[in-house]
Specification:
Radius of gyration: 24 Å
Number of strands: 9
Strand order of the largest sheet: 1-2-7-4
Bound molecules: protoporphyrin IX containing FE, 2-acetamido-2-deoxy-beta-D-glucopyranose
Shape: globular
Structural class: alpha+beta
Oligomer: single chain
Largest sheet: 4 strands, mixed
Helix content: 40-55%
Order of helices and strands: HHEEHHHHHEHHHHHHHHHEEEEHHEE
């Protein structure tokens, strides 16, 4: 037994010596094990594991997991070197086997290289579809959905019934996005053939599987064994996604053709919902393009996740909540529901959003793959490395933020904090990433968030339930645990009873 331990130990040592010789100028690296490398140091909440490692080994560390190499970055100036100075090299996004599968890079799916879904997402992120003009056109859709959402909460409030806020926020943001993208409604009560519901479930599943951290992704020679049926699941999801999208698209094409035949006169203002072209119409208008590159889907959950964290933080910080209510009351006079156009007059709400995205970035790690060798922070970073920019850790770094865990929106309204925005110019605050691979959905999110959070602040206080289903006593904070994944939602759903501050029903336009 003892000799076995000694043997293992000397093997380890040898491995250590050999690997430190080979990687002479790569960044610092914790001790690793043969074959699995640093796998044993990781935990499902990857961003937290990375933060712990960074605290021990510095802001730039090199990790090997099987055959994959990672560079973990957790300070703004190094993040800038990767994302700005070396932007061209670090603009690819091949993450893991699951993503490869769902995005059709697996050899067995060669036929799907340029399929419908892929093209759709590609266009979505490349075109003007998320630009100002299109967003403005869809304002009525967003307004109607928010009013509907507030009404459902008001009804619960009158009945003194609890709501699953996690669920209803997810529905809200999926309704908005899917109506914009596909002109379908995804709540179960008003679906066409249940397409909406199916889309909603799929989006959730895809983001979940992307984030699931699984051994078989990382150990090259085990890949073929498909240890956890992971590959199967990825494959199934990808099939369902494609079938669904093909169907939606062919339905739309038929509809468009019908419309084209019917249009004899262009008299204009008929039904206004018909007039608003949806994303898919626009996509079909855009002519085909054939180039294939990587893309990334973890997008649609993020808005709902941000609102949940904001509501939870407001619940735990009554002082902030009160100040927010004062601002919203002042702007609306409570004669109407808060609306998107009020946004410029809501500096405190905007500070709350920044503070929420600082402490709870829905996407905690920016993942980019290096296409060429680079030098960063004086170290050689070999090509093929996956840079993981830990924006979660930077948001909680006491050298960057005073009392980082404290939820204090005022930090964005005074002194230097005033100049910080979320547009990717400040590398200590990158909730939407930065540069050409930054989030194209930011303008949409930054319209939705103030409107949703503001309307909730205007209309309701909350009674919250704890994870065990017990009503929290007055003054008891709600937990802030995180759930693992590529996006980081709350570990426990927000279940609460809305307590109306005013009767919102007369203010709604439905
Ligand atoms: C609070 C809300 C949101 C947050 C915090 C967020 C955050 C992010 C982040 C961090 C990235 C990676 C950026 C990088 O690597 O530099 C990203 C990418 C992306 N986001 Fe968002 N996002 C949000 C909402 C949205 C919405 C509403 C949409 C679409 C309707 C969207 C669509 C996308 C797409 C398509 C990409 C991939 C871009 C590419 O790979 O080129 N996001 N998002
Ligand atoms: C979109 O509108 C916002 C404010 O409404 C403005 O700051 C931004 O520059 C606009 N973007 C483009 C591309 O016009
Ligand atoms: C509302 O429900 C809560 C918990 O279910 C209960 O404690 C409370 O007494 C109820 N309030 C009213 C006014 O019915
Ligand atoms: C709340 O909704 C989520 C998402 O639909 C669901 O997974 C969860 O079970 C619900 N929680 C409760 C307590 O009903
Ligand atoms: C267009 O068609 C509608 C009904 O088909 C008709 O009521 C309307 O007068 C027409 N407009 C013009 C300008 O011809
Ligand atoms: C190491 C690891 O995180 N393995 C996970 C792989 O995925 C299954 C579920 O699909 C998890 O239960 C494992 O924990």
């Amino acid at each position: 037994m003892l000799s076995f331990v000694a043997l293992l130990f000397s093997l380890l040592l040898l491995h250590q010596i050999l690997s430190s010789k080979r990687n002479k100028c790569t960044p610092p690296s914790p001790p690793s094990l043969p074959i699995i490398g640093h796998l044993h140091l990781l935990k499902p909440l990857l961003h937290q594991a990375f933060k712990d490692l960074s605290q021990k080994y510095g802001p730039l560390i090199f990790l090997k997991i099987g055959s994959a190499r990672f560079v973990v970055v957790s300070n703004p100036s190094l993040a800038k070197e990767f994302l700005k100075v070396n932007e061209v090299a670090y603009s690819a996004r091949k993450v893991n086997m699951a993503i490869d599968m769902v995005t059709y890079h697996d050899a067995t799916f060669a036929f799907a290289q340029c399929n419908t879904y892929w093209k759709f997402m590609k266009k979505l992120s490349n075109s003007e579809l998320l630009g100002n003009r299109t967003l403005l056109r869809f304002l009525p859709v967003r307004t109607r959905e928010i009013h509907e959402f507030i009404r459902s909460l008001a009804e619960k409030s009158m009945a003194n019934e609890s709501v699953n806020l996690t669920e209803s926020l997810m529905k809200l943001s999926n309704n908005i996005i899917s109506q914009m993208m596909l002109s379908i409604k995804s709540s179960s009560d008003e679906t066409e053939d249940g397409q909406g519901e199916e889309a909603r479930v799929l989006v959730r599943e895809v983001t979940k599987i992307f984030g699931e951290f699984n051994i078989s992704d990382f150990i090259g020679f085990l890949k073929v064994l498909d240890l956890q049926g992971f590959k199967n699941r990825a494959m199934q999801i990808h099939k369902r996604y494609d079938v669904l999208l093909e169907k939606i698209i062919s339905d739309r094409e038929t509809l468009r053709n019908k419309k084209m035949m019917n249009i004899v006169n262009k008299s204009g203002d008929g039904d206004k919902d018909d007039k608003v072209k949806d994303f898919l119409d626009i996509l079909l208008d855009v002519s085909e393009d054939k180039d294939c590159e990587d893309f990334f889907t973890a997008a649609t959950d993020t808005t709902a996740i941000s609102v949940q964290w904001a509501i939870a933080e407001l619940f735990n910080n009554p002082r902030v909540s009160k100040k927010a209510q004062e601002e919203v009351d002042r702007v609306t006079g409570n004669q109407r529901l808060l609306r998107e156009e009020d946004s410029p007059n809501l500096p405190y709400i905007h500070a709350i959003i920044k503070e929420t995205l600082r402490i709870h970035p829905p996407i905690p790690l920016l993942m980019r793959k290096g296409l060429t060798d680079c030098v960063v922070g004086g170290y050689k970073i070999p090509k093929g490395s996956m840079a993981c920019i830990n924006i979660w850790a930077m948001g909680r770094d006491p050298t960057l933020w005073e009392s980082p865990i404290e939820f204090r929106p005022e930090r964005f309204l005074e002194g230097e904090g005033k100049t910080l925005d979320t547009k990717g110019n400040n590398f200590e605050l990158l909730p939407f990433g930065t540069g050409r691979r930054g989030c194209p959905g930011m303008p949409l999110a930054m319209r939705e968030l103030p409107a949703i959070i503001g309307a909730l602040v205007q209309c309701f206080n909350w009674k919250m339930f704890d994870p065990k289903g017990k009503l929290l006593d007055h003054g008891t904070p709600i937990d802030m645990d995180e759930q693992p994944g590529l996006t980081v939602p709350r570990a426990h759903d927000l279940i609460c009873i809305p307590v109306a501050r005013l009767n919102p029903i007369p203010l709604l336009q439905l």
